[in-house]
## 1
Amino acid sequence: MKRLVRLETSRLILRPMEESDFDFLYETMNGPSVRSVWEHEFERKDIEEWIERRKAGYRENGYDYMLALHRETGEPVGQAGLLKERLMDKQVLGIGYIMSERHMGKGYATECARGLVAAAFEDLGQKEIYCDIRPGNLPSIAVAKKLGMEAVGSFKKLYHGMEMLHIIYRLKKEGFLSPCDIRVKWL
């Protein structure tokens, strides 16, 4: 199994999360935009479990959410990753992206997602990739549309005892223009 250990775009480096990323992840997940989408405040134990789930994803699948760092400064700007998901009664490969409040609106989510989609299509041989987004999460919907994704359905996800409507977006490989400025390292 291939393990994604690093992905570089023109401005960003994505690498696996570590316990030392806790403070940044805690701040990001508790930012007003993220909290409004997830509809709850993240406690310390939630972030510890978040990091552990990412590590389990790396072990089981070779990929998961990764920390996104600015190439020049090394400052964390968010997280993004490839995710195994069950959507529309089938196992699919999805992408997810969550930027910190102070780094939203700079194109980092689109840059991360574009690089991850390219890696999924070119390195993993995927024919399509998915993303599920809450209807009110307009910035994430904008990223999906910039990638060329189209809405193909919806479902209600049970999360923290709440049923949350999600729109399913899909991108087929033939509809994607691969960026030329990414470098991917797999082990």
## 2
Amino acid sequence: TKVNGIWMVNNKYAAREELIVSLFDVLTRVTTLCPVPRAAHDYVVRSLLDKNTKVEVYSNSNTDPEQVYYIGNPSADGSGTYMLREIDGKPDTRPYITYIPGVKGYLTPYYQTDEEIWRSRVIFKYTPEQIKSLSLEYPADESKSFVLNRAGKDSFTLSPLNPKYAISEAS
């Protein structure tokens, strides 16, 4: 869900931007290759209903999804993905093999549902220009602890956290 311009995972965490971009790319480029062959129809439907990822695509502030579909396993040759659309709240009568033109492989990994995978890895969101000083402290060996201070646009000073470890210049 997008909240105040930020994509959120389960309304708890900021989402990884690169995964959002990747998912939107898949959502806009995925297309059908062909209907599932009749001989495999029942098996594919059973497997889709047994194990799937349900995708609901909403636009703006609509409370009803614009599209709903179920993503299943890779096709028999591994070059496509079984999908089943929902139309008017009911599964379509025929599943399809879907793919992205120019991409060989199945699409299921793009629809990952693990919250920890989607959660942003950003700890501090600063640009280098916003950082005035940075200190790193090693409690077990304070001789390795240091402070990095911005001296100018492209220059920094580096000094020990504890002045007793400063290197003095020889005269």
